[in-house]
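Technical note accompanying the year-one report. For the benefit of new consortium partners, we illustrate the data format agreed upon in the data management plan: each record pairs a sequence with a structure-token string. No post-processing was applied to the example shown here.
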Amino acid sequence: MKRLALAALMALTGGALWAADPVEGVWKTRPDDNGNFGYVRIAPCGDRLCGVLIRAFDKTGAETHSDNIGRKIVWDMTPDGAGGYGGGQVWAPDRDKTYASKMVLSGDTLSVSGCVLGGLICRAQDWTRVK
């Protein structure tokens, strides 16, 4: 009986460990300073979450080639609870700057924000989930 209870507990715990984080998936960024936008796939990378640029689009919405496809845009994010994520970095291709970042998930909107120089210069974007 103890083995059955232990097996049930392990199955429940193991299932919870393998459950996908709600932020996982593909997100459309807001257009950058040049009007370009992209699709970023957020997925686990080790014990954290990362986002990789998987597609790029020009200001007309046409898919375009980008040397940044396959590059990490977001990395080292960890869940803070209640839809919040922190401790990560976000790279902005249009300015070639890396910002200390956080994210907040609300339904199909992901608010991504980051700062440099100890919070003196900050940027924020709302990304939408691609379905």
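Partners are asked to follow this layout when depositing records. The two ends are 45 Å apart (CA to CA).
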